[in-house]
């Protein structure tokens, strides 16, 4: 499946304004989805362990989750308690995966084999977890068909973040209903894989010996400051309580972190050479508070850049390992959003890149040790379900030491 994101005709419209301005949305499959959102249907509920999730209340948006300990509730796959025999953590990176279609299953099958061989102990899902509208409830059957079934065999915790499709309003992918993401937080309580204790949270992984953590992940919710439409709920507006709380939390958490490596997970990228562009000018929009992503750009530049080693994002259905630059304060942006949809085959912008691919499906594997971080990028042949190592880059002490294709 190719990238088919819906783009509004103007910045910061409400969803009703968008629908009036673009009557074509009322036609064909998109129109059917819009009508479904106006009159939500209840999908088949999950059985077994997932059935009980319906009664679980969502965590309040904006509640700070404590740094996760290396333990998990009964029935959950446990977080790693230390590096592997090689002295490193091995982490699967995927994004924009949740279509339930053949491409997702093929990428997942290829990743499963790499995970088996390399001993992956943790995975990351960079948003757009359930296309096209996100979940209709905490026990939506699409959690099973678009996450659990494709990822069967990758039996590790998955650090999940919210994407714009997970927070759809009337229009698929609009990001117009952030509260919809609370259903994914609730679902995490009953899933052995899905890890999302709150809408934003941090997780630390210990070093081999006692002392400071080896790596800390900071999962953030980028949707209220990069939605395609204006937010109508005052709580989720760009300058509302939720984003003020999240910014304070992220600033404090990064300041307090003593981890050797710091990694921020956010669906929307800071920098991006794919067609959606970078924060502050997403999809060619440079005005307004939402569609352009200007306030996400501010968040990245004022809180993240120069503090985190990596920003890991999806949203653009491409694979990119960008160069750390003076602009980023030495922070490297990685885009990994090709787990079920592919890009249009060409670069649209010219940010310095170590390696990038705009046409293939794929995933990445992150390896973290005391001395270095390595990112291996894999492309996947959908027909054969086989992965090919396309590029590897190794970074130590904030500098690139090896890059090979």
TrEMBL record:
Entry's Gene Ontology molecular function annotations: hydrolase activity
Keywords on record: Hydrolase, Signal
Residues spanning the signal sequence: none
Keyword Nucleotide-binding: no
Superkingdom of the organism of origin: Bacteria
Segments forming domain Calcineurin-like phosphoesterase: 90-318
Pfam families for the chain: Metallophos
Coiled coil: none
Signal among keywords: yes
InterPro entries: Calcineurin-like_PHP, Metallo-depent_PP-like, Metallophosphoesterase_PAP, TAT_signal
Protein name: Calcineurin
The species this protein was found in: Streptomyces alboniger
């Amino acid at each position: 499946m190719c990238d088919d994101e819906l783009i509004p005709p103007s910045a910061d419209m409400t969803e009703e304004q968008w629908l009036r301005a673009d009557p074509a949305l009322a036609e064909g499959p998109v129109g059917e989805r819009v009508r479904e959102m106006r009159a939500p249907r209840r999908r088949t509920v999950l059985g077994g362990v997932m059935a009980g999730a319906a009664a679980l209340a969502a965590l309040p948006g904006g509640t700070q989750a404590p740094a996760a300990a290396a333990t998990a509730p009964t029935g959950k796959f446990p977080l790693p308690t230390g590096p592997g025999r090689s002295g490193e953590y091995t982490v699967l990176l995927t994004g924009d995966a949740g279509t339930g279609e053949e491409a997702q299953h093929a990428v997942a099958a290829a990743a499963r084999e790499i995970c088996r061989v390399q001993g992956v102990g943790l995975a990351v899902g960079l948003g757009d977890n359930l296309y096209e509208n996100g979940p209709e409830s905490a026990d939506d059957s699409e959690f099973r068909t678009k996450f659990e079934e494709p990822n069967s065999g990758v039996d590790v915790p998955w650090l999940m973040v919210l994407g714009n499709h997970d927070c759809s309003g009337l229009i698929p992918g609009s990001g117009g209903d952030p509260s919809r993401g609370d259903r994914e937080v609730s679902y995490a309580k009953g899933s052995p894989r899905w890890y999302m204790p709150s809408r934003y949270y941090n997780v630390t992984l210990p070093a081999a010996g006692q002392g400071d953590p080896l790596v800390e992940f900071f999962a953030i919710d980028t949707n209220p400051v990069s939605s395609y439409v204006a937010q109508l709920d005052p709580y989720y507006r760009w300058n509302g309580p939720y984003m003020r709380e999240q910014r304070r939390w992220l600033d404090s958490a990064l300041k307090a972190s003593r981890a050797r490596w710091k990694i921020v997970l956010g669906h929307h990228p800071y920098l991006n050479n794919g067609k959606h562009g970078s924060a502050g000018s997403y999809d060619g929009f440079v005005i307004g508070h939402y569609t352009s992503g200007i306030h996400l750009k501010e968040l990245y530049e004022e809180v993240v850049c120069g503090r985190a080693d990596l920003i890991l994002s999806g949203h653009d259905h491409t694979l990119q390992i960008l160069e750390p630059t003076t602009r980023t304060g030495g922070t490297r942006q990685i885009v990994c959003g090709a787990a079920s949809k592919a890009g249009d085959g060409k670069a649209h912008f010219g940010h310095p890149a170590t390696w990038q691919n705009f046409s293939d499906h794929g995933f990445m594997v992150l390896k973290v040790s005391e001395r270095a971080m390595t990112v291996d990028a894999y492309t996947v042949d959908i027909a054969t379900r086989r992965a090919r190592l396309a590029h590897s880059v190794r970074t130590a002490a904030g500098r690139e030491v090896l890059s090979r294709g």
